[in-house]
Write a structure and sequence with these properties.
By secondary structure, the chain is of the alpha/beta class. It has helices at about 10-25, 40-50, 65-70, 70-95, 125-135, 155-165, 185-195, 215-225, 255-260, 270-285; strands at about 5, 25-30, 55-60, 95-100, 140-145, 150, 170-175, 180, 180-185, 200-205, 210, 230-235, 250. The strands form four sheets. Strands 2-1-3-4-5-10 form a six-stranded parallel beta sheet, sandwiched between helices. A three-stranded mixed beta sheet has the order 11-8-13. The chain starts with a strand and ends with a helix. About 50% of the residues are buried.
Length: about 290
């Protein structure tokens, strides 16, 4: 019998992973940071031994990029050693691990999209800690890299843009960082399917459509029925205050492994963006 364990179950991706598993009729157990601190090896071992999963999707992470820059030791403990703890516990019960990683494992200097086999070179504490997590996996496990994640649960850029638009006439967003926005519900459905298919190796899973943050903010306003001309482009160097952690200028992840294996690409990001904006605006009216 398939039994799935999802770590980070309270996060914007974790909540969607639970929903995707439920929609597929899969027995699924979610654990939050309050249930299990992944940096505590004994706690992880106890939880995994109790649940006895056949598959683990490890979505728990410390994703506050600037806070990670200020406390690299904690970032490494949670994202790096925490992943190693999950992998060690998984081996004890014969479970396969699918680890959710990030575009931040790249330095962003490549011309053109990153594919799964490109060399990594993280430039932030967050990226370095997530790469250590990738390196903790075995050949039986899988890494799924996502980027620019937005969803209904938790905080994200869609909610931030809508909030700023409500309070300011002009919105300023950087035009020199580019990526593929990834929507949590679309990504979660594919990650669950990949995990249950027992894939191994590295996979990039994003919605399609390359934009800068400036262009993305315009698309959010369009989805909300607002004037996109209210958004103006700025350079990362002009951000005030400057961000403590460096961001990759190029975060575009090409989904080459999925294409090569015959998986369909996720929708253009504008499709789930419209769906999310409609839901958020409906909530604000109730």
């Amino acid at each position: 019998m398939t039994r799935l364990l999802v770590t980070g179950a309270a996060g914007q991706l974790g909540t969607e992973l639970l929903a995707a598993a439920s929609a597929r009729g899969i027995e699924c157990v979610g654990v939050t940071h309050g249930d299990v601190d992944v940096a505590d090896a004994q706690a992880v071992m106890h939880a995994v031994d109790r649940i006895r999963p056949t598959h683990i999707i490890h979505a728990a992470a410390w994703t506050a990029v600037d806070n990670c820059e200020a406390d690299p030791g904690k970032a490494l403990a949670v994202n790096g050693q925490g992943t190693a703890n999950v992998v060690t516990a998984a081996r004890q019960v014969g479970a396969r691990v699918t680890y959710v990683s990030t575009d931040y494992v790249f330095d962003g200097t490549k011309v053109g999209p990153y594919i799964e086999t490109d060399p990594t070179n993280p430039v932030s504490s967050y990226g370095r800690s997530k790469l250590v997590g990738e390196q903790a996996l075995s050949s039986d496990d899988a890494v799924v890299r996502i980027s620019w994640v937005c969803g209904y649960a938790g905080g994200n850029m869609v909610k931030t843009i809508l909030r700023i638009a409500e309070n300011q006439d002009v919105l300023s967003f950087v035009d020199d960082q580019r990526g593929h926005p990834t929507f949590a519900d679309d990504a979660a459905a594919r990650i669950v399917d990949l995990a249950l298919a027992d894939v191994t190796g590295i996979w990039h899973v994003t919605n399609q459509g390359e934009v800068s943050w400036f262009e993305f903010a315009r698309e959010v306003l369009i989805a909300a029925g607002l004037n996109p001309e209210r958004v103006r482009p700025i350079l990362t160097a002009d951000l005030q205050p400057p961000r403590p952690a460096p961001r990759p200028a190029n975060s575009v992840l090409q989904n080459k492994a999925m294409a090569d294996a015959g998986w369909t690409m996720l929708d253009d990001f504008r499709v789930p963006l419209k769906r999310l904006v409609v839901r958020l605006l409906s909530d604000s009216k109730n």
